[in-house]
Amino acid sequence: MNPYENNMTIDGLEEIELENTSIDEIDSENINLIFLGIDQSGSMAAYDRDMKQALQEFKNALLNSGEAEEILAARANFDSGLQVGGYKRLEEFHTGFTAGGCTALYDAVAEGTRRLRDYRGFLKKEGMRVKAVFAIFSDGKDNGSKHTFSDARQAVQFLNDEEITTAFISFGGAAAKTAQDLGFRNILDVSSSASELRRAFDCLSRSVIESSKSVLADEDDFFQI
């Protein structure tokens, strides 16, 4: 049995709303949830300034779109550890970046899926129509997680089964093969350069905006814009 299919307990609802945007702050019945997991391992140190710029441009593109009011974004940073933020309005999206340590990719996928599942379920119980995109940016293989490959694979399978768009930006290295093995349906493989980094996040922002406009999830053609 996939552990991500378990139902939420009522005791957790208050905590879920505290961690994320509360129902009282949401004006639309249509919500687009965007999860973005960012690899901050040491191999990304050379792109510190470029990553900050790319994240700011990503944020600006979403803020300037017609769908901005219906998008709530969560960011997770993973290196030797994992820090997962709640789903907040785009104005609150953090664009800082600091690289160092290992790559806890499986932890980001497993814990990010759990957080998305819980908040999405909460919103749907409140009568919201919810679409979601689960995106990861990484340049390497996992070498620092507490969760296993199997845990992460089950998480991605749950997302796919729930018709949540799964997307992975592979920034050089061996990350594309990892993404494929985990079951991500949309993989954008770019080479490791500053220009390719900016191109990747430009593609991601345009794909998110187009996905937000559509009625159905872009399960297998998310990056085809």
Give your account of this protein's structure.
This protein is of the alpha/beta class and 225 residues long. The protein has a single domain (42-213), classed as Rossmann fold. Helices cover 38% and strands 20% of the residues. The protein is built from 6 helices and 7 strands; from the N terminus they run αβαβββαβαβαβα. The chain has helices at residues 13-19, 48-63, 105-125, 149-161, 175-182, 194-213; strands at 30-39, 71-78, 82-84, 88-89, 129-138, 165-171, 186-190. Strands 1, 2, 3, 4, 5, 6 and 7 form a 7-stranded mixed β-sheet that branches. Strand 6 (165-171), helix 5 and strand 7 form a beta-alpha-beta unit.
Helices and strands, with pairings:
Layout: H1 13-19, E1 30-39, H2 48-63, E2 71-78, E3 82-84, E4 88-89, H3 105-125, E5 129-138, H4 149-161, E6 165-171, H5 175-182, E7 186-190, H6 194-213
Parallel strand pairs: 1-2, 1-5, 5-6, 6-7
Antiparallel strand pairs: 2-3, 2-4
Quick gist of this model?
The protein is built from six helices and seven strands. It has 225 residues and is an alpha/beta fold. It has one domain (42-213): Rossmann fold, CATH 3.40.50.
What key attributes describe this structure?
single chain; 225 residues; alpha/beta; Rossmann fold; 38% helix; 20% strand
